[in-house]
Amino acid sequence: MAATTTPCCALIAREPLSETDAADLALMLKAVADPVRLRLLSMIGSHAGGEACVCDLTDAFDLTAPTISHHLKVLRTAGLIDGERRGTWVYYRIVPETVNRLGALFTPLTEPAPAQPVDAELRTA
Questions:
Q1: Which residues of 22-44 are buried (b: 16+ CB within 10 A; e: fewer)?
Q2: Beta strand ranges found along the chain (DSSP E)
């Protein structure tokens, strides 16, 4: 009888990441590690209709338009957002698959991994 395995914990703790997966996920983590970019991602995702015009985003920050554009480019390069030009404005929306992949890195799917027994020598130290 074959044993079935069920994911017990977050992706990061389930098995070692491949070099490619680690590089992809690191790019996303670097993108959201900046407070401005994290706020932009949140503003875009929570905006009515699930997308936001760049004109809706710039006034929330005490930053120049080129700086906001740079932050949006970093998020877009990481695959977290996508944009569409409509006339003179660009409208951004979150890419759910990418954001979900990033979230799954740390989200337990069922239960945490069972605790490993501790050697008696370690308990007395």
A1: eebbeebeebbeeebbeebbeeb
A2: 51-53, 81-86, 89-94
Rounded to the nearest 5°, which phi and psi values hold at 95?
-95, 100
With the C-alpha atoms ordered 51, 54, 59, 65, is the resulting torsion angle positive or negative?
Answer: positive
| Mean pLDDT, rounded, for 5-26 | 80
Tokens (6 digits) for 15: 């098995």
Angle (deg, nearest 10), helices 19-32 and 96-104 = 110
pLDDT in tens, 50-74: 999 998 899 999 999 999 999 999 9
**Among all chains, which residue has been given the structure tokens 């209709």?**
49
Residues 6+ apart with CB under 8 A from 30: 78
Q: What is the spatial distance between Cα 59 and Cα 66, in angstroms, rounded to a whole number?
A: 13
